[in-house]
């Protein structure tokens, strides 16, 4: 593990006991205490580069105050433009930010764009209410008021997920501050249930990264090895990659659970990142609050089992970095300048790559995803109805195997980063996933899959993504 990874781990572990301290605190102590801890961590790990997050926050707040009716698009343009400046500092001869500064900046970008969107929704709702002449019941997820500068500051620097996620909306943050009976929320038991696999994942990460170091792929001797060895090597590399993030995200979720952050009644049917999709009245007494069943789906960032064992590439994306996937679906995919599912996915993957950084490997990996989505959707729609029940079971495992190999292949671009290293490795395995995906797409089209199936996939995906909006309107 690198020194940066040890620092991340220490920050994540420290956040767990801190969470227990804040859980039963009052709204004021929660707000300013959590902000003080988060700002302290930021200054400690980022030093003077903390100024970048502060400038981003102040710029977004100014846009919200100046143009509340269109601040979502303006905030998206401002924060993403600042990311470009932030990553070009070394080219401009300015000090290069620390990796921790980059992590804070990434999460802050998501939070500020979400906040601007929620303020815009509030402004539009208020205008509709004024035009209609009568007051409506509060809409699910709608903010009670436009946050002040200090409220925006406290949300931006709340220590929860400040470097590793999970992403959470301002409404989720407010609900945490205003929990009526926080002592009734379960913490220790769900924390232990969530944390138990993390040590195993950590050991597997250390073992796999030791036996199959990534640096070996950068050496000339690696490409003298037989083709089966080169093909196999991407499997343990992606395995180590998954184990590393499993540990980090589970620890981050445990920090939230310790604080009671993101706890909602099961009846609210909360979604990762988005929060409740059904209105649940707050309990009127401690006894009623204690009788409710709660979950922490709002801050759930990883579904380890389904990430590894779901069948499709599309499903694998949903179970990985779940709160960020919700953000991408809500604020990027839905406003994409295209109607096709594959093209909208390509637009979303392009902006996701940009959000991650400027390394060419990100773009090579993320922009391979739409090809895989098109291939699996087209071939599955052409074959599924022709298979017997036994054939469908066989297809499930074949499809799962190909899905995992596609993610192994794409992961190499994500970890090698440079265009030369990524293309060199992909060329050494003869661009097998690109060729296989193209062949599957061609076969699916030949067997009668194609536009109809892709439109169906798009409509299903769009229906799923707009379901919370329909619930909010109701």
Automatic annotation (TrEMBL):
Keyword Transmembrane in annotation: yes
Lineage: Eukaryota, Metazoa, Chordata, Craniata, Vertebrata
One GO molecular-function entry: O-acyltransferase activity
Protein name: Leukocyte receptor cluster member 4
Subcellular location: Endoplasmic reticulum membrane
TM stretches of this protein: 6-22, 34-55, 61-85, 428-447
Main location: endoplasmic reticulum
A Pfam family recorded for this sequence: MBOAT
Organism: Heterocephalus glaber
Recorded metabolic or biological pathway in which this protein acts: Lipid metabolism; phospholipid metabolism; Phospholipid metabolism
This protein's GO CC annotations: endoplasmic reticulum membrane; mitochondria-associated endoplasmic reticulum membrane contact site
UniProt key word Endoplasmic reticulum: yes
Stored PANTHER family: LYSOPHOSPHOLIPID ACYLTRANSFERASE 7, PORCUPINE
Signal peptide bounds: none
GO BP term (any one): phosphatidylinositol biosynthetic process
Domain of life: Eukaryota
Family affiliation: Belongs to the membrane-bound acyltransferase family.
Keywords, alphabetical: Acyltransferase, Endoplasmic reticulum, Membrane, Transferase, Transmembrane, Transmembrane helix
Bilayer disposition of the protein: Multi-pass membrane protein
Catalyzed reaction equations: a 1-acyl-sn-glycero-3-phospho-(1D-myo-inositol) + (5Z,8Z,11Z,14Z)-eicosatetraenoyl-CoA = a 1-acyl-2-(5Z,8Z,11Z,14Z-eicosatetraenoyl)-sn-glycero-3-phospho-(1D-myo-inositol) + CoA; a 1-acyl-sn-glycero-3-phospho-(1D-myo-inositol) + an acyl-CoA = a 1,2-diacyl-sn-glycero-3-phospho-(1D-myo-inositol) + CoA; 1-octadecanoyl-sn-glycero-3-phospho-(1D-myo-inositol) + (5Z,8Z,11Z,14Z)-eicosatetraenoyl-CoA = 1-octadecanoyl-2-(5Z,8Z,11Z,14Z-eicosatetraenoyl)-sn-glycero-3-phospho-(1D-myo-inositol) + CoA; (5Z,8Z,11Z,14Z)-eicosatetraenoyl-CoA + 1-hexadecanoyl-sn-glycero-3-phosphocholine = 1-hexadecanoyl-2-(5Z,8Z,11Z,14Z-eicosatetraenoyl)-sn-glycero-3-phosphocholine + CoA
InterPro entries (UniProt xref): LPLAT_7/PORCN-like (IPR049941), MBOAT_fam (IPR004299)
């Amino acid at each position: 593990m690198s020194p940066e990874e040890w620092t991340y781990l220490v920050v994540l572990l420290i956040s767990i006991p801190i969470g227990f301290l804040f859980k039963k605190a009052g709204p004021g102590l929660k707000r300013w205490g959590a902000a003080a801890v988060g700002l302290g961590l930021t200054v400690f790990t980022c030093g003077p580069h903390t100024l970048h997050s502060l400038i981003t926050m102040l710029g977004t707040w100014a846009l919200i105050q100046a143009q509340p009716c269109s601040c979502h698009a303006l905030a998206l343009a401002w924060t993403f433009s600042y990311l470009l400046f932030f990553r070009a500092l070394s080219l401009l001869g300015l000090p290069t930010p620390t990796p921790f500064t980059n992590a804070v900046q990434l999460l802050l970008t998501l939070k500020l764009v979400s906040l601007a969107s929620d303020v815009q929704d509030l402004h539009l709702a208020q205008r509709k209410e004024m035009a209609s002449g009568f007051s409506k019941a509060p809409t699910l997820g709608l903010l009670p008021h436009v946050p002040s500068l200090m409220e925006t500051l406290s949300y931006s620097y709340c220590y929860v997920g400040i470097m590793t996620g999970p992403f959470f909306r301002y409404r989720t943050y407010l609900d945490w501050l205003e929990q009526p009976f926080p002592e009734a929320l379960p913490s220790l038991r769900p924390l232990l249930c969530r944390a138990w696999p993390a040590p195993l994942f950590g050991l597997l990460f250390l073992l796999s990264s030791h036996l199959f170091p990534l640096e070996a792929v950068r050496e000339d001797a690696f490409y003298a090895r037989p083709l089966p060895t080169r093909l196999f090597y991407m499997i343990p590399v992606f395995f180590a990659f998954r184990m590393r993030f499993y540990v980090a995200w589970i620890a981050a979720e445990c920090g939230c659970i310790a604080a009671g952050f993101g706890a909602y009644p099961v009846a609210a049917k909360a979604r990762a990142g988005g929060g409740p999709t059904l209105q649940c009245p707050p309990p009127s007494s401690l006894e009623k609050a204690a009788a409710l069943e709660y979950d922490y789906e709002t801050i759930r960032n990883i579904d380890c089992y389904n990430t590894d064992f779901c069948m499709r590439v599309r499903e694998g994306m949903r179970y990985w970095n779940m709160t960020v996937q919700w953000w991408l679906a809500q604020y990027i995919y839905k406003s994409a300048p295209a109607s096709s599912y594959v093209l909208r996915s390509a637009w979303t993957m392009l902006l996701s790559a940009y959000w991650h950084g400027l390394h060419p490997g990100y773009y090579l990996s993320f922009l391979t995803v739409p090809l895989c989505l098109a291939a699996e959707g087209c071939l599955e729609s052409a074959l599924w109805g022709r298979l017997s029940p036994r054939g469908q079971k066989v297809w499930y495992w074949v499809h799962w195997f190909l899905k995992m190999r596609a993610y192994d292949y794409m992961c190499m671009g994500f970890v090698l980063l440079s265009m030369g290293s990524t293309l060199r490795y992909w060329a050494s395995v003869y661009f097998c996933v690109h060729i296989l995906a193209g062949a599957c797409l061609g076969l699916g089209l030949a067997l009668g899959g194609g536009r109809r199936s892709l439109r169906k996939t798009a409509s299903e995906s769009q229906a799923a993504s707009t379901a919370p909006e329909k619930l909010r309107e109701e």
